[in-house]
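Figure-free illustration: sequence to structure, shown twice.
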Amino acid sequence: MTTSGTRIPAAPITGLYGALVKKFATKMFGSVPESLGVLWHHQPALKASMSYGQKLQKWDVVDETLKTYAHMAVASMIGCSWCLDFNYFMARDKGLDLDMAREVPNWRASAVFSPLERQVMEYAEAASQTPPTVTDEMVEPLLAALGPAGVVELTSVIGFANMTTRSNIALGIESEGFSAACGLKPLAERPAVGSPA
């Protein structure tokens, strides 16, 4: 790994598009995340991922809270500290309940989530297993609560979360402290694998 922890050193973000990206990042985070420099090595891949992520944010069949919890559940299970921290940070901007969002890594043991929220996070984890462990029994209550379009949207969010979390892990991209920088409480700890929830 490089001295910063990433497996690929960050590239200088240059040019007109680079200036726009840095301006947007600084406005959102207060600084330019190092991860952008890593992804800058392949700008078409960066643009495609950003474009899909922005389109996904506009979908509104499923409540934003449920989609955020699903993404955070995937990030926690896969071990992507960047995505987990980023989604917790973004929960503040989306007006979500931050005390609940911080509990997502420990959702099985936490008493703060509704049955539907638990079903969403269970589904997100099952869809993220290799191979996936989704069952008909998991989908039935989601279909009843969200409808067919909602289940498709939720599944697409989970798929995108898997792409970003697994890519970040492979590249060695870790949390850059977004939530800590804006004074959010630390995230709940995920129980060790094999420990009782």
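We now fold a second protein in the same way, so the two outputs can be compared directly.
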Amino acid sequence: MTIKDIAKVAGVSYSTVSKALRNSPLVKEQTKRKILLVANQLGYQPNIAAKSLVSKKSNAIGVVWPTVERAALSALATKINAELEKHQYHMLLSINPVDTAITVFNRYLVDAILVFNEEGTSTVIESKIPILYYGEPGPSPYSTFNVNRRQAIEKAVEYLYQLGHRHIAYIGDLSKQNRNQQEKLKGFMSGSKASGLAPTCAIPIDTAGLGSQEGYRAAKQLLQSQTPTAIIGGSHDITVGVLRALKEAKMEIPADISLIGYDNIPQATNVEIPLTTVGTPLDKIAEQITQSLIKLIREETIDSPLLDSELIIRNSCAPPPS
């Protein structure tokens, strides 16, 4: 099925159909509706590859994704896709290694590429298409967009300290190779120091990963040796794992212990006890990423913003037990 077939059935010229399908103001609304109706009836699907070769635009964004298993990333992917659709862009998702994904996206002639750089990729990969890195800074000369993870954990510590907690644990990935996670650890240590928390009462526990199973194992390890009055989880999935360990230990939240999770995502309200969370809201991240991508496509200069975090208080926090 081609544009010529639509033109024949609708009784209009080839150029009129082409303009109508591009939503051109040069075509009367009545004619446009007729053409779109015929196109739908005939099952017309535009040839994106051919269109992009002619216009040099595909209205598609390639996204290099680290994993589909973590709740926060899945929620963010949904938000970014919705934001891109507002601007008539489609999202193509790849979970291939960064270099492979960028090579494939260059073949498909997408308009821009978004890389979630959790692995700290530093090799410059040849690309004729503009690239935006989110998370770990990308290799020069690519633009980078990030959120203020250190500030987020500092806010969590400050809030717990104000509630009266003096024995706080941070359970997260302490890998020195991942700057994102190191920023969270730095936030925990600097927040503890600024609040006046005794060094022996600010306990970082390494999960060696960001999943719920890692969070569960780390919390079990912590509870075997000591019991803080509050815990901060380094990701939503880690916090879910911590929640499971606390339940097995028959500790009630927040009566026995308070819990804050990193990642401001809708899923935080869907667990047994709605979680107090800290981090940059997903709507704000998706909006800023989309704006940055569009600027790159237009060959405009973009800032490299570090988005502020927000603390959202729910049922999982209370003053420490007396």
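Summary for the second example: Residues 179-195 form the longest helix (17 residues).
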